[in-house]
Amino acid sequence: MIVEDDEKIRHIVADTLRKWQYEVIEVSSFEQILDEFVNGQPHLVLLDVNLPMYDGFYWCQQIRHVSKVPIIFLSSRNQNMDIIMAINMGADDYVQKPFDLSILVAKVSALLRRNYTYQDESLQVTHRQLILHLSNSSIQYGEQTADLSRNEFIIMQTLMRNLGKIVPRDVLMQALWNDEQFVDDNTLTVNVNRLRRKVAMLGVEDFIVTRKGMGYLIE
User: Fold this and answer.
1) For 97-139, what is each residue's pLDDT tens digit?
2) Does the model's pTM come out above 0.70?
């Protein structure tokens, strides 16, 4: 699903994706984007920041209320604060305009592959009685559960599959965003801290340990 008010850019991106055998929904009315999303049920959203009525940040939040579908922001804004805001609101990637179409297609492909491969898994990982459910991106401790965002889920899965080992920050950033160069280093810290809060709310303290200058681990 492409939400882009520049008709020329929207058509170029749509045509390129169709050449790669993707089915594309082009949004041309920007008043009821959430309704378009619910009706279309896309597997991924390309979302411009500057839109009529409400901006892309607003619509990202609305989509996140009902879905964990991957979201890639497309924007001419290049300020770190815009990128951080996008990630904090639930975006999975942020592509600055002008962009290379081949790179955009690669990012779309990688996000779809990672996101829906994870969803197909039906296993669970357990440590210190905390259970990570791979089938629905949630954690459980006793009778309490918490849903994880896509980013939180990937961080937790990566750390739990490397128990006792320090996972470097750049490895986590690569797993999350494929090309960490566009991401301010603080965005990883924000995602880890949100994950820590969710784990602590279930009653598990000090689950994720920071090794300054090195990375994170679960002991």
Assistant:
1) 888 898 899 889 888 888 776 544 446 888 999 999 877 789 9
2) no
Cβ atoms < 10 Å from Cβ of 164: 8
Residue with tokens 């980013």: 151
Q: Which two tokens stand for residue 121?
A: 């898994």
Name the burial class of residue 21, with classes exposed (0-12), middle (13-18) and buried (19+) by CB atoms within 10 angstroms of its CB: exposed
Determine the residue type at 212. Answer: K
Q: Which two tokens stand for residue 158?
A: 């990566």
Cα angle value 138/141/147 (rounded, 5°): 20
Sign of CA dihedral 155, 90, 114, 120: positive
User: Per-residue pLDDT tens for 20-41?
Assistant: 989 999 998 888 898 888 888 8
Residue 16, CA distances (Å) to 102, 103, 116, 142 in order: 9, 12, 22, 48
Nearest-5° Cα angle at 133, 120 to 121? 15
Residue 147 is classified by DSSP as: E
pLDDT at 184: 62
Residue numbers of the chain with a pLDDT score lower than 50: 119-122, 180
Residue 218 zone, left/alpha/beta (φ > 0; ψ -120 to 50; rest): beta
Residue 199 confidence (pLDDT):
96
